[in-house]
Write a structure and sequence with these properties.
binds potassium ion; 16 strands; Rossmann fold; binds magnesium ion; 3 domains; binds guanosine-5'-triphosphate; Ubiquitin-like (UB roll)
């Protein structure tokens, strides 16, 4: 039996099995097996992907991958938001490779990747699914484009495809400490009550992965699936924005309903509706910030801000200015929302906010 057959056998068995206390261990084990086969499926394809138009170099301050069914309007969006033209047409699979474009926003260069449409079964190699998904893994954000005139199952299907290859959308990494040891058996602990898993199931899952010596510490009430994610260690956690296109074709009530959903933006690429708002939300979801530098006695350099990630410290800013600046650092003066006073003297570990101004004082 090939891996694909084994996967579909296990999937069938999981859907056949009723979820209750009595089947909990059985299901946990099935899921561990499933995750194992799926990761095997992903490995060998890596080599053959060079030179087929999908190995686009990363450039700019962030990378966004356009994922969606055929003909939802991905290429139309790329051609509208960037200077790059990507062919758009009313037939499916117009786009066959990865087409990069650049969105210029708030002084940042955001790389937007137009990709072929993907369909159900993409993760198992249907269409160009595997290459598309491999590109999605390298992105800082997934822009999932959906056709607002179609049923919402399209979204669930795509989520399932990405989920099955270890891409986790709008989720935090499970807070489980996990370390494989050379001996000593399995030490299992938790800092909170666990309602979705117990020690026996943890043991069973680890044994399925042939792990007999490890330290496991649950710091939150995680599920068996989340434990499997931590064991596999190859999961990527990406923010995802659901962009519903073609709202020119649906009623205003329907537009309102969709716009209220979490992580969702409604647009019409053809009519250029709501694209400014899309860029605003995109910026927010990418967690980008601008920091302006200032020399003593001079105004801040607002024309040329540094593009950084939310949560960066003064140390990161110094590195971005010059690689030797940290050694010479004495203190910094910061103007903006990250400080109580403007300016305020801060140390190297101070956390910066969007649109802060900084002046570094050297030793
Ligand atoms: N009504 C309407 N049609 C749109 C809109 N945006 C794109 N389209 C149309 O949808 C069709 C498909 O657009 P594409 O940009 O080629 O879609 P795609 O997702 O890149 O398609 P593939 O590359 O084949 O996966 C074209 O006929 C577009 O003109 C929109 O906002 N409203
Ligand atoms: K198309
Ligand atoms: Mg296209």
């Amino acid at each position: 039996m090939g891996i694909l057959d084994k996967i579909s056998e296990i999937e069938k068995e999981i859907s056949r099995t009723q979820k209750n206390k009595a089947t909990e261990y059985h299901l946990g084990l099935l899921k561990a097996k499933l995750a194992k086969y799926r990761s095997q499926l992903l490995e060998p394809s890596k080599k053959s992907e060079k030179g087929d138009g999908f190995d686009v170099l990363k450039s700019g301050d962030a990378r966004v991958a356009l994922i969606g069914f055929p003909s939802v309007g991905k290429s139309t969006l790329l051609s509208t938001l960037t200077k790059t033209e990507s062919e758009a047409a009313s037939y499916e699979f117009t786009t066959l490779t990865c087409i990069p474009g650049v969105i210029e926003y708030n002084g940042a260069n955001i790389q937007l990747l137009d990709l072929p449409g993907i369909i159900e079964g993409a993760s198992q190699g249907k269409g160009r699914g595997r290459q598309v998904i491999a590109v999605a893994r390298t992105a800082d954000l997934v822009l999932m484009m959906l056709d607002a005139t179609k049923q919402d199952v399209q979204r669930q299907l795509l989520e399932k495809e990405l989920e099955s290859v270890g891409i986790r959308l709008n989720k935090q990494k499970p807070n489980i400490y996990f370390k494989i040891k050379k001996g000593g058996g399995i030490s299992f602990n938790s800092t909170c009550p666990l309602t979705k898993i117990d020690e026996k199931l943890v043991q069973m899952i680890l044994h399925e992965y042939k792990i007999f010596n490890a330290e496991v510490l649950f710091r939150e009430d995680c599920t068996a699936d989340e434990l499997i994610d931590v064991i596999c260690a190859n999961r990527v956690y990406l923010p995802c924005l659901y962009v519903y296109n073609k709202i020119d074709q649906i009623s205003i009530e329907e537009v309102n309903r969709i716009a209220r959903q979490a992580h969702s933006v409604v647009v019409s690429c053809n009519m250029k509706l709501n694209l400014d708002y899309l860029l605003e939300v995109l910026w927010e979801y990418l967690s980008l910030i601008r920091v302006y530098t200032k020399k003593p006695g001079q105004p801040p350099d607002f024309a040329d801000g540094l593009i950084l990630r939310k949560g960066v410290s003064v140390e990161h800013v110094c590195h971005a200015i010059h690689r030797n600046l940290v050694q010479a650092f004495k203190y910094a003066l910061v103007w903006g929302t990250s400080t109580k006073y403007s300016p305020q003297r801060v140390g190297i570990s101070h956390i910066m906010h969007d649109e802060d101004v900084i002046q570094v004082v050297k030793k």
